[in-house]
Amino acid sequence: MEELENVGKQPLLDFNFLKELTDARIGLGHAGTSIPTKESLNFKLAHAQARDAVYTPMAIVALSSKLESFSLPSTTLYSKVKDRTEYLQRPDLGRLLNQRSTKVLSDEIKNCDVVICVADGLSALAINLNAFDVIKLLVPKIQQANWSLATICLVMQGRVAIADQIGEILKAKLSLILIGERPGLSAADSMGIYLTYRPKRGLTDDSRNCISSIRKGGLSAELAANKIFYLIQQAMGKRISGTGLKDEYES
Fold first, then answer.
1. Total domains in the fold of the chain
2. Residue 51: in which H helix or E strand, if any?
3. What CATH number is attached to the domain comprising 111?
4. Which residues are annotated as a binding site for adenosylcob(III)alamin?
5. By CB atoms within 10 Å of each CB, which of 193, 198, 238, 240 scores lowest?
6. How far apart (Å, rounded) are the C-alpha atoms in residues 8 and 191?
């Protein structure tokens, strides 16, 4: 009888040590054949937060003010996208500046070493929470290396490749773009940084280096700034970026 009672039973696993290492949904437990009500509600909340992150606007005025207080000039630019719905449906338009922004940028000083772009991407929340913290740590490193900086470009409704056009117009040696990453059910506030040497329109993803998952609970602003500066040094020295440039930074 005792053997029959134990058929199908498995020892309970302790997932607490794994939960300290990841925000992924593990060890949720169960209530009968389903998950507990609390976890079910948490899942629905995470889904709602991910959707909100996509539609939350970038706090461009607040970011511009923070940059100004740090003595960093900025320029607000817009892609060819008209609204958020079109942004989601037409990623190609998010890669290009509209006519007015192209004209505005054409009047800026050319031939800089580095241009830093900031775009809302698929999570403006990520930009609102993380962008300035990285920039304020990264810019002094760039300045100490005696590299010239263009105006910081704040791009509304932008995709990653829009930094290629910006860099091309400004004739920059290297472009960086800080952009909100696609929100998931574990994190809606994750920011990525993409680096391109000799940016120009038409480049593909293999020409870029990426650092992702910059957020509280992910890669810290300090480590992200150190890693991206390392990549800038390598890209400038080797005159290459993308698949030909390996990230061998030791944290």
1. 1
2. helix 37-55
3. 3.40.50.11240
4. 160, 181, 210
5. 238
6. 44
